[in-house]
Amino acid sequence: MNTYPYRSMGNGLISGLFVALSVRTIDQEFLCSGPYTGFKIVVHTPDEVAMGGDWFFRLNNEDDIAFTFTPNVMYTSGKLRNASPMRRSCFFDNERYLRFFNSYNQANCAAECIANLTLRKCGCVKFSMPRTADMKICDASKIECYRNILIEAFDEEIRHAMQGMISLCGCYPACNSVEYRVEISRMPFYFQELSRAAGSAFDKYKGYDIAVMSMSFKHRHHLPIWRREMLGVTDVIAEFGGLFALLLGASAMSLCEILYYACIRPLRRERIPRLAINWMFVLPWAARQNPFRTRVNQPEDW
User: Are 188 and 63 in contact (CB under 8 A)?
Assistant: First the structure.
C-alpha cells in the first residue's frame, strides 16, 4: 500500500484514478498549436521516456476520456543469454549501455540515438532531447536541421531492414518489458453548462476549460509471457537420437527384405497342381466323400 508509484488494488473504475485537467481560455494559442485544443497523453512505463511526438492520445478540452489498461509482460529465460542479441532480437538490461538512462528499453535507446545523431550533424540538440550540461541547445535556425534528422534516421532504418542488416541505432526491444494495451471510451464533458447550472459555486472555475480523464485496469490479474529456447541441448540430442534410430531400423529392414526376395525366395518356390486351381471354390453342401470321384465300379447307392 505504501509503495511508490502508487498501485491499484483492483480493477474497474472503483479502483481507478480520476484526473481533472484545466487550462485558461486566454492561454489558447491556435496559431502555433493549430486547430487542436487540450492535451497529449502518452501511456508508458515509469522507466521509459515519453515519445509524445509519435504515439499519443489526444484529450480535447471539455471532453471526458476513460482509459482501460491491459498490461503485457514479457520475460526472457536466462538461458538465452548465450545466444547473440541479433538471433533473439532483444537486449538484456546489462548488455546495452545507455549514456543518459539507467535502464535499457527500445524507446530510451531510440531517444538517445536521435540525440547523438542530431549533435553530430547539427552541432546541437533539441531542448526536449536527453543531453548533458555542456551540450549546446539548438536555436530557431536549426529547426529544419533536427527535423531532417528524424526523416534520415527513419529512411536508414527502412533501408537496413530491407537489406537484412543491423539498423542504424541497433535498438532492439528489451528482453524483459512491460507494455500496455489501451482501450478508450470518449464522451463530451459539458462543463460550461454545469457551471451555469451550479451558479456561484463554480465561480472560481470561470475562464477555464476543463477536461476529465479516468484510468483503470481491465482485469484483476494478468499472465506474463515467457520467451525461452524452443529446443535445448538435451532436447536436440533426444530428437536426433530418435530420428537416427528410426532411419536405421527402416534401412536394416529394407535390406533384409531385398536379400530375402533376391536370394532366398527364388529357392523356395513351390509348384501348385493344375487341378488344385480348379478346386478352389466353396461347395453349397458338406459332402461325406469326394464329390469329384468318377462313378466307375461304384455301388448303386453311391
Answer: yes
